[in-house]
Amino acid sequence: MSSHDIPEENLPDAQDTPHGTVKLADERNPFADPGLPPHEHRIQDIDERAAKRSERTVALLFTLSMLATVGFIASYVTIPVDKSVYIFPLGHIGALNFALGMTLGVALFAIGAGAVHWARTLMSDQELTDERHPVEASPETKAQVMDDFRQGAKESALGRRKLIRNTMFGALALFPLSGVVLLRDLGPLPGTKLRHTLWSKGKLLVNMNTNEPMRPSDIIVGSLTFAKPEGLEEHDHEFQTQIAKAALMLVRIKPDDIKDKRQLEWSHEGIVAYSKICTHVGCPISLYEQQTHHALCPCHQSTFDLSDGARVIFGPAGHALPQLRIGVNDEGYLEALGDFDEPVGPAFWERG
Ligand code: FES
Fold first, then answer.
1. Does the beta carbon of 296 lie inside 6 Å of ligand 1?
2. Ligand 1 atom 4, closest CA
3. Summary mean pLDDT of the chain
4. Which listed site, 39, 40, 132, 296, has its alpha carbon 20 to 30 Å from 204?
5. Do 159 and 289 fall within a single domain?
6. What domain range is 152 assigned to?
7. Distance 298 CA to ligand 1 centre (A)
């Protein structure tokens, strides 16, 4: 509500002060209007040489912006797309992108800095007050708008020319569909891709460190070994996408210590293979405690008991780690006997 809406008799008494008119507190309005603080002159307001210095600074910044814009255009025209430069500490990066980014950044920064310096040092800094007014239109204006609307509807003959009216509504209703169609460019739907990994029957387990297929004797009690599916190489275009689902960790546990019956069936000589991807938000699990058979995710400390179906015994993860069924082939190498039987990683993938 503005002071215009308050009856005059309810407004507090006003008093003139050196800083303008302020409203005094009284019984009806216990909070006095403090008015504006006294205006303090800046150095530029009283010293013409300081004002000139500020003017030159602002002009310098705007000139710098112009030069940077010219540099941007020149870079775009002259620098080859495939040229790279070494920039400490970024390493080798595209020269064109670097030049475009730097020149554009300097051009924008200099315009902004010039405008701010101009406003702070040379433009008037007198504080002004403006009473708030009602934003609602007056009854006369509203009546005028309605009259104009009816007049326009009458002159356009929308009511009489039904063909035009109906086709216009059709066009307006259909037009937003073009935006919906563009959503297709967001890419193909993932379908069931998140439910499957590269593991399948007969795929050899390859040691992530040595890149060699593994035999059961390579997995010793107490160690944590990481494996990937045979055929997946680091230089593959899809490597990161695939390893994010297929990364595997192997431990050897004495068969007598394995509590879960299915886990025992899916293991080989006590070697169990679990997804390395934490079922909380997908960090790679990397810590293993030999005595307790606990695997720990370093991100939020979810702890999985690898001797008991990798069930969660601590932390925010909501699911046990999926187990991969393994065996050995005729040549004695460890191989997968199928894919994981459930989605790996965070629980939201189950809805993919
Ligand atoms: S990602 Fe593993 S506990 Fe959060």
1. no
2. 300
3. 87
4. 296
5. no
6. 139-173
7. 7
Query: In a 10 Å sphere around its CB, with 0-12 CB exposed, 13-18 middle and 19+ buried, how is residue 216 labelled?
Result: middle
326 occurs within a structural domain: yes
Across the range 325-351, mean pLDDT stands at 86
- CB neighbour list of residue 310: distance below 8 Å, 6 or more residues apart: 263, 274, 295, 304, 320, 321, 323
Residue 59 phi, psi dihedral angles, 5° rounding: -60, -40
- State how many domains the chain has: 3
Which of 274, 278, 303, 304 to mutate to test ligand 1, by most ligand atoms within 8 A of the CB atom?
Answer: 278
Q: How large is the C-alpha radius of gyration of the chain?
A: 37
Q: Is the peptide bond before 176 cis (omega within 30 degrees of 0)?
A: no
| pLDDT of 182 higher than 70 | yes
pTM of the prediction?
A: 0.52
pLDDT single digits (tens) 43-90: 999 999 999 999 999 999 999 999 999 999 999 999 998 888 998 888
Distance CA 2, CA 6 (A): 7
Q: In ligand 1, which atom is closest to the CA atom of 285?
A: 2
Tell me 204's DSSP state.
B
